Automatic annotation (TrEMBL):
PANTHER family: CARBON-MONOXIDE DEHYDROGENASE ACCESSORY PROTEIN, SEPTUM SITE-DETERMINING PROTEIN MIND HOMOLOG, CHLOROPLASTIC-RELATED. GO terms for biological process: negative regulation of cell division. Residues 6-233 form the CobQ/CobB/MinD/ParA nucleotide binding domain. It comes from Acetobacterium woodii (strain ATCC 29683 / DSM 1030 / JCM 2381 / KCTC 1655 / WB1). Signal peptide: none annotated. Gene3D superfamilies: P-loop containing nucleotide triphosphate hydrolases. GO terms for molecular function: ATP binding; ATP hydrolysis activity. This is CO dehydrogenase nickel-insertion accessory protein CooC1. GO terms for cellular component: cytoplasmic side of plasma membrane; cytosol. It comes from the Bacteria.
Length: 261
């Protein structure tokens, strides 16, 4: 069974960037097989990883809905369930040392309950094929509250230096306790800290929220420049401050050791 790592936090704090660099680091360490999952309706993990995505779960759902509404056969002699599973298998894209599955968005108004359900079922099916599943969550807490991710072995909370960001991840930790999810390892990473140093106000809020800080990633001009020109962040130079800091943090997380417990 796969070791499941979930990354969560408020929108705009850089969790997708850190998720991409985490995946790249584990691949470089020869760990795997790895399934990277972009569980955000506004998917962009593939851009961080430098991968093209041809098919998402949201697009598959629309494809099936369109066929049913217009009376178009999905495929001769194939049930809806079998067709859906075939397309979901095709949605798992092969990346550089990992596979990638993207939830994506549905068209029009309405909640993402059905798409979330498909994602949960697919993760249950795929878990036996991978040693690690790393999930980049949406900005909210829906996947946690709905149990979309199933078993979570390690939860990495990501915040910027703002009190609001720290309070947001504090609420996520509280939700995990309320839902009795029994996550063995919950750690906090503070991202985009000026000079890689926390100010007293941020440190005070972390203590107030009873969060376990594993490391701080400095504000890195390279990251802004790569984003501005649409360059994959996994191509950051090895001496990039953010990349170096994340490498140290991953070592402290002891992912290999924790996954063998």
């Amino acid at each position: 069974m796969a070791f499941n790592i979930a990354v969560a936090g408020k929108g705009g704090v850089g969790k997708t960037s850190l998720t991409g660099m985490l995946i790249e680091y584990l691949v470089a360490e020869g760990l795997g097989p790895i399934l990277a999952v972009d569980a955000d309706a506004n998917a962009n993990l593939n851009e961080v990883l430098g991968e093209e995505v041809d098919l998402s779960i949201g697009e598959i759902k629309e494809e099936v809905n369109h066929a049913e509404m217009n009376g178009i056969p999905l495929s001769p002699g194939v049930t809806k369930a079998d067709f859906l599973q075939l397309r979901l298998n095709q949605a798992v894209a092969e990346g550089n040392g990992y596979d990638l599955l993207v939830m994506g968005r549905s068209q029009g108004a309405g909640c993402y309950c059905y798409v979330n359900g498909i994602l949960k079922n697919q993760l249950d099916i795929l878990a036996k094929n991978y040693q690690y599943i790393i999930v980049d969550n949406e900005a909210g807490m829906e996947h946690l509250s709905r149990g979309t991710l199933g078993k979570i072995d390690m939860l990495i909370l990501v915040s910027d230096c703002s009190r609001r960001g720290i309070q947001a991840v504090g609420r996520i930790k509280e939700l995990v306790a309320e839902l009795n999810l029994k996550v063995p390892v919950i750690k906090l990473i503070v991202n985009r800290a000026p000079d890689g140093v926390l100010n007293e106000g941020t440190a005070e809020e972390i203590k107030k929220q009873d969060l376990d800080l594993i490391g701080v990633v400095p504000l890195d001009q390279n990251v802004f420049e790569f984003d501005a020109y649409g360059k994959p962040l996994v191509q950051l130079p090895a001496d990039s401050p953010a990349k170096m800091a994340l490498r140290d943090i991953v070592d402290k997380l002891e992912i290999i050791k924790n996954s063998k417990k």
